[in-house]
Description:
Blueprint: E1 2-7, H1 11-21, E2 27-33, H2 36-45, E3 52-56, H3 64-74, E4 79-84, H4 89-98, E5 102-105, H5 110-123, H6 129-140, H7 155-165, H8 170-177, H9 181-195, H10 200-209, H11 214-217
Parallel strand pairs: 1-2, 1-3, 3-4, 4-5
Amino acid sequence: xxxxxxxxxxxxxxxxxxxxxxxxxxxxxxxxxxxxxxxxxxxxxxxxxxxxxxxxxxxxxxxxxxxxxxxxxxxxxxxxxxxxxxxxxxxxxxxxxxxxxxxxxxxxxxxxxxxxxxxxxxxxxxxxxxxxxxxxxxxxxxxxxxxxxxxxxxxxxxxxxxxxxxxxxxxxxxxxxxxxxxxxxxxxxxxxxxxxxxxxxxxxxxxxxxxxxxxxxx
Length: 218
């Protein structure tokens, strides 16, 4: 069961989204919040944690960017999906930088909504290829390509990192590289340790900034 919290100051939108999510198999909206401060208090005073928190980017008191920063610091195990009425590369890139797991426009189709939620729940990250391409272009000119070997990555770890960025599941990576699931998980653990990334988003940022996946996404 994928457990979700919704945070949006627009009551009609949050009710509509809750209704749609209730139709998805194995997806449950545990709680909804119209005030970000209420969410923070809930997390501070209750042990229960959702798998995903869906956050509106434009809210009074605490906007979505600031709330995402707080959530990734206080509850790094919980995935954050940003929601916005206005598509903006600047906004999306900022979300990537602070550790959001996905972005969805509020007018996204129902299949896209479900695909994003399930991918985030299973793999911890989902940004569409076009977004990753744009982000890569924005950072490539500002940062020279590093020699990953000098950073201590093995060739197999690089292979796994590329496939993670291509959003393959652990099972798919194992099948593609002809290795066991345990071996894939070991490589993931090594990648987190060597790159300093705290989550899959961090691994993707590392790969993008080092131009490792330029051929995969361009």
